[in-house]
Design brief:
With about 290 residues, the chain is mainly alpha-helical. Helices cover about 75% and strands about 5% of the residues. The longest helix has 29 residues.
């Protein structure tokens, strides 16, 4: 009975596979659930878990920068721990219902700082090794790839959530609400961290897609066809990049990650974009100019 209740609790506080990144769903969410259950009675909120995730990313970055095989392996393990704790914040927020107003922005900030640290030190670590070809410069291309791939997935995921909840204009309304919040914050003294978080969030959101024109689709048709397409974007999102990177670090076989990040993921992205564009064009109602 307890096992059944625990399984139901887990299912109630996680999303189905089609709404998750595959490595999150299969590996990191289950491990995050164990951590959340073990620490549930502690006075912790989602931001605490985000902070721990950031610590693991920074610790891993330190080891990666050393450039030695063992240090690379430790760095790979730290990236996995970062990925696990990065899944804890949303889960504890749903279980305890103690999410913060700035939870989304803090999570984005942690991911940004973590990725900057990881890929910057990856360049340093690879440069310290002896390679026939200066592969360390590929780390910057990989950093750009994970940013673009994660942004695209986040955009289509949010769009799907808005359409499935019967709110096609949800993205615009949400961003406009945060813009008003930011305008109010700018008039106040202090709260510099909150201002920075919201500034970065709005820049990130605007970079995903301009609001000059917004395509409107038949909500029922959009939800029906895109429930199967969304997981395709997820295969090359952030957790996939970090999983392959951690594997490459632990095995000291960086070509594994470079091949995934620079070749496989981009070819896959083009394929899914072609599918997405054709499907969406078939259910387009109109192009709404703002």
């Amino acid at each position: 009975m307890m096992a059944l209740l625990s399984k139901l609790e887990y299912q109630n506080n996680t999303k189905e596979f089609r709404l998750e990144e595959p490595f999150d769903f299969l590996i990191y969410r289950p491990l995050a659930y164990l951590i959340v259950k073990l620490t549930y009675k502690m006075p912790l909120n989602p931001n605490h878990y985000s902070f721990v995730a950031l610590i693991w990313a920074l610790v891993g970055s330190y080891f990666i920068a050393q450039g030695e095989k063992l240090d690379f392996a430790i760095g790979g393990v730290c990236i996995i721990l970062f990925s696990v704790f990065d899944c804890c914040d949303g889960m504890i927020a749903r279980m305890k219902k103690n999410g913060s107003k700035w939870g989304t922005q803090i999570d984005m900030f942690v991911d940004l700082i973590s990725n900057i640290a990881i890929y910057s030190t990856l360049f340093i670590g690879l440069k310290k090794q002896n390679h026939d070809f200066p592969i360390e410069y590929f780390s910057f291309l990989c950093a750009i790839c994970i940013l673009i791939h994660a942004s695209i997935y986040h955009y289509y995921k949010k769009q799907f959530q808005h359409y499935s909840s019967g709110n096609p204009d949800g993205r615009i309304r949400e961003l406009n609400a945060w813009r008003r919040e930011y305008d109010q914050l700018k008039k106040q003294k202090g709260q510099y961290f909150e201002k920075f978080l919201l500034f970065m969030f709005l820049k990130f959101s605007n970079a995903q897609k301009s609001d000059d024109s917004v395509p409107l689709y038949d909500a029922e048709k959009y939800t029906k066809v895109n429930i199967s397409i969304l997981p395709l974007w997820a295969f090359v999102a952030g957790s996939s990049h970090l999983t392959f990177l951690s594997l490459a670090l632990m095995l000291n076989e960086m070509p594994i990650y470079l091949y995934f990040a620079l070749v496989v993921s981009n070819l896959w992205l083009l394929l899914v974009y072609f599918i997405q564009s054709n499907v969406n064009s078939s259910i387009l109602l109109k192009e709404k100019v703002l």
